[in-house]
Amino acid sequence: MPSSRHVVVLRRGQIYHFDCLDSQNRPIVTEQDILRNLKAIVADADQTPVHEAAKSSVGLLTTENRKIWSQLRQTIHNSSPSNASSLEVIDEALFIVCLDDAAPEDLGELCGNFLCGTYGLSGGVQIGTCTNRWYDKLQIIVCANGAAGINFEHTGVDGHTVLRYAADIFTEGLMLLARSINPKAPVMFKAKLSPHAKASRVKPGPDDSEPEPLDPSPKKLEWELSNTLLTGIRFAETRLSDLICQNDCKALEFTGYGANFIKTHGFSPDAFVQMAFQAAYFGLYGRTECTYEPAMTKAFLHGRTEAIRTVQPSSVNFTRTYFSEAPNKEKIQALRNACTAHSKLTKECSQGLGQDRHLYALYCMVRRELDSAPSSPISESGSTKSNQVEMPPIFSDPGWSLLNTSILSTSNCGNPALRLFGFGPVAAEGFGIGYIIKDDGISVCATSKHLQTRRYLDTLSSYLLDVQQLILQIHRAANERTGNFVDHSGVLREAKTGRAIAHLSAQTPAQTPGLNALELEEEPSTSGYSFFDSVEVQRLARRRPRNTSVGKVLQISEY
């Protein structure tokens, strides 16, 4: 909200807040002030026994079904003025900071903590970090070991918007580090400390009046919870715990190569990785499934995303060719064709030429008409009994259901500010795959419900290494010399190894006593291609060889 001036902090399910901006969006707290506030919050929250805090974690209600949460939220709002004010404080906050008491070391567990929190029972009470969330707001989650992540609800914002936020914060941190070394170094955020801040050396002027008093001290929200609300929290926790147990989250940080290698060999990095997902799934399950990837449409007013359907005739041909007995060159050519087609499709979707969003909008319009006509129920055939409104055949066709069941739901959200990026699966039998393509590596976070998530990532890693070897083999074969060559110093060298065969001179090998022209010299080979063209060979052969034995040889120390 434009009027937001405070942040909300969660610790063990308990909720605190403090002001951090004045009405002109100038900070009223320094870095040290924030640190002191957070330490005070942690100290206060940890005084409450974890079991008692977990039983009254109101944030658990935000994980409920939307209709149930809407009813319980209204109950909270109407139960007391204090509860209504607490909800207003949370709704109007800039964002939520979740201070977790867990410190996951495994990458998969770390991603799972940022996605849905950890699961942990003690005495029949859920005490995992899953109780320390408020999913209706953008959340900055910080683990006990300092690892930090962002969790956001997708309805109101897209990943690339949050990525911009994370990237700016990360960049500002680097620039502040540079300024600590060089005071003249620039920074991104130019806002000066508010004159209302305790640490400010400037007194407030006539234009600095505040409509409401500012208080940077942390304050705890107190809730009046009836038995109905306590029961709702209990059932919400049980449902959430089931969901956590049903989902598996694993991570892969592939370091074999990244965007640099992919682009060097003429592939689009995103298309290359998309085909890797196809090959890994085909290699593991022997079939191709519906795949989704978002394309940004922010060039349009209110534009968000369009669906890229990765599975196309070219991608199917690639996976079948790759796992066949076809020659390596044919496999890589099939990969190149599939990547080219995917890049073209991505561009078209970004330009608003996709079909998914358009068809979905039409479907929603038909559903709205049908829902507003209670006298015209839908028959099993997909048409209405009164024939006033009919469901178009396309929306009752099995193909429509197949198209909207994304077994592989993927998204590329790359930036140096992020280490990993992920989300949950959108189909019961599918994977949710978030990936970041870096210059020298590829980071992948995969989730699923009771599928072989780790095995899928292992298969993906094996494919990435295998296809690299095929590309390099074909590249070497294409650039291999067919015959021996003469380098710029007049040395005849082998085509395959580059090792010297003999120095060319006016004398022929037969005229040189004790010299066999095919005898290899113990001379280190030179890399690269000959500087001269082949027409220069005869002239080089007549050139007088250099005398490299003149002078005293110096002893070089080892290093």
From TrEMBL:
**Which BP terms from GO are recorded?**
carnitine metabolic process
The enzyme class is transferase
What EC numbers are recorded for this enzyme?
A: 2.3.1.7
Key words, A-Z: Acyltransferase, Transferase
What family is this protein classified in?
A: Belongs to the carnitine/choline acetyltransferase family.
PROSITE patterns, per this entry?
Answer: ACYLTRANSF_C_2 (PS00440)
GO MF term list: carnitine O-acetyltransferase activity
Its recorded name reads: Carnitine O-acetyltransferase
PANTHER family named among the record's database cross-references: CARNITINE O-ACYLTRANSFERASE (PTHR22589), MITOCHONDRIAL CARNITINE O-ACETYLTRANSFERASE-RELATED (PTHR22589:SF29)
Instruction: List the active site.
Output: 154
Cellular component annotations (GO), alphabetically ordered: mitochondrion
Q: Pfam families recorded for this chain?
A: Carn_acyltransf
InterPro entries registered for this protein in UniProt: Carn_acyl_trans, CAT-like_dom_sf, Cho/carn_acyl_trans, Cho/carn_acyl_trans_2
Report residue spans for region: Disordered.
198-218
Q: Name the source's superkingdom.
A: Eukaryota
Coiled-coil stretches noted in the UniProt entry, renumbered to this chain: none
**Per the database record, which ranges form the Choline/carnitine acyltransferase domain?**
4-461
